[in-house]
Amino acid sequence: MTALPAYVPSRSMVGPNAVIQLAGALRDADGLDGARRVFGASGVLDLLVAPPREMVDETVASGLFDALWRTFPSDRASKIAWEAGRRTADYVIANRIPRPVRWIFALLPTRPACRLLLKAIERNAWTFVGSGTCTVRTGPVPSIEIENNPLAMPDCAWHCAVFTRMFQRLVSADARVDHANARRGNADICVFDIRF
What we know:
With 196 residues, this protein is α+β, with helices and mostly antiparallel strands. It has helices at 17-41, 46-49, 58-71, 74-95, 99-107, 110-123, 126-129, 157-170, and strands spanning 13-14, 56-57, 133-137, 143-147, 176-184, 187-195. The protein starts with 12 loop residues before the first strand and ends with a strand.
């Protein structure tokens, strides 16, 4: 009998919080009807009733973000995406970063804490970049770059909120994240500069 190959998660999967926290942000912003409109327009109404517990295909999350912009005016969609990103960061900090590590962040000066968080983000990028590629830079203006970001949206509000909240809570309360689009060769790149 031939042994089955070990399961290897697809690079096109992202964490379920991209879906779960969007549902919560939608409910708070526009009630259950607003959440139903977005999830229904994306063809995943069932995920509103039974939220995912495991990684989801990146096309599910990107489809929801697209439906968000089709359902609401751009400024409103951006606020809802930002809130979903903030909630995602809070979940990650509370449930995926061990308490002793959070204490270490609290003890470190800003620059070493920033470098530590950037490395952690790069190591765990598979949860929020899917088929994209994440690179971090620790220079004078630290940055996170996502090449071919499958969850890209106007101003990348969701990613900006995730990164802003994480850096504000773990590194410095005055951290801010600025987003820009770039292009290298055939690749579209979302650049997130972290400033203090």
